[in-house]
Amino acid sequence: MRLILFLFLCYCLPLSAQVPGLVTDPSGHTQYRCPAGWTAQVQQQQQLFLWTAEARPGDPESPGLLVAAMPATSVAPTPALLQDFLQQLVGTVEVLRTEQAGADQLQWFRASIEGQQAKVAGYYTYDPSSGYVFCSYFSALPTDFGRLGGMQLLCASLSRDCAAYAEKTGDSLAQDSPTAALTGNWMQVVSYQTGEVYEEPVSGKISYGSYGYGHLLELRQNGSYQLTYSYDNFTQGCENKAAFTEEGRFEQEGEWLELQPTAYEGAFVVCGQRTDEQKQRPPTRRFQLQLSPDGQNLRLHGQPFEYTISLEYDAANQPYFEETFQKQ
Q: Which of UniProt's keywords are assigned here (predicted)?
């Protein structure tokens, strides 16, 4: 255990980033830090040393930290190891963003961990003095990732300063002109009778003529959003309707906007039969920022809402579909 402590001290001591609410390793073996109340432990598997900290051990939805230390004689000390090692742990991952901090590398991933969709922050560094490579990760459900600090939490646990690579969420959105331009109301509306795609909101509601469907997406400066979905159609002698409201958080990663819903609720009516429906933690969805054909306006293109009443399906015959939103 003394060797483990030495290795982790070599990695952890160079910087002194301070983040409120963190405590020194509860296991007592390292100088790493984690949120108060988390459980930490150190393990050795041959030449691989692992430090882990979890909010709720045994819970597949628990956020957690992991640091893996391995000798450079057993692995190639390159930044590519950060993604490779994560894939060995959880399977296929999607890289969302990569940043270089000198010889170190920071990466943001999307992954499925024990059946749960998660976001992962990763930090790679090589310490020539000890001859060890360190791959460190913070993973959480998308709704918890930003709330707990994302990459900033991982860096603070390692005593690294990553302020220059902060996620664009919360109040920082209002100070970042490209992202702040996204805040406001975005609309997608289709009228089955007129074929109109975009129409103005009327009295705070979606208006699309006699029959059709539409979405109103409000992106707020504090990083939260509200998505309203409305559907109205008459088919096979029945009038079918739906009205839902979804709440959550959003993040921007380059050209991508990610919705992280916490819940939605509403109802749909099929031939007079009303069904109330609500869902906690719906799946995250991504929109791509695009320019209109004339290059004058921003658009959002992606999967707007999970719903059951419409017969809209994508090319793979899935009950999700893609639409393009235009800012109002």
A: Signal
